[in-house]
Amino acid sequence: MSSAELEARFRAAMSAVAEAVLNRGARRTYDIVMDGAGQFIDEYFDCAHSGAAYRLWMEIGDLADDPRGPLSERMTDEIGRKAASEWLAIDQSSPLAVDAYFARWGWPEAWRAKG
What we know:
The chain is mainly α. It has six helices and no strands.
C-alpha cells in the first residue's frame, strides 16, 4: 500500500472514531475512544500523525480514568465531542489543515471545554 493510501485510511479511521463519539447512543465516550485509539499505533504507525491521534484519544479517555485527572465522564464526553467535531469540520484533504488540527490538540488550551 502506498503512503498516500495509508494516510487516506488514517484520515478515514480518525473520522470513524469522531463519528462514533458524536453518535454514541448508549455507549460511553470513554469506551469508544479506548476501543479506537490502538489502531493509530498498530495499523497506522507509519502515518505522519499516528502518535498524535493515539495520544489525543487516550488523553480524552484519561479524563475519566486517570487518578491524576478529573475522573469525569462529563468532561470525557464534552472534550471528546469537541475534538470529534473539529476533526470532522476540517478539510482533511489539506495536509496543512490536518497538521494544524493535531498541533492545536497538542496544546493545553484545546482541552478547555466551552459550554
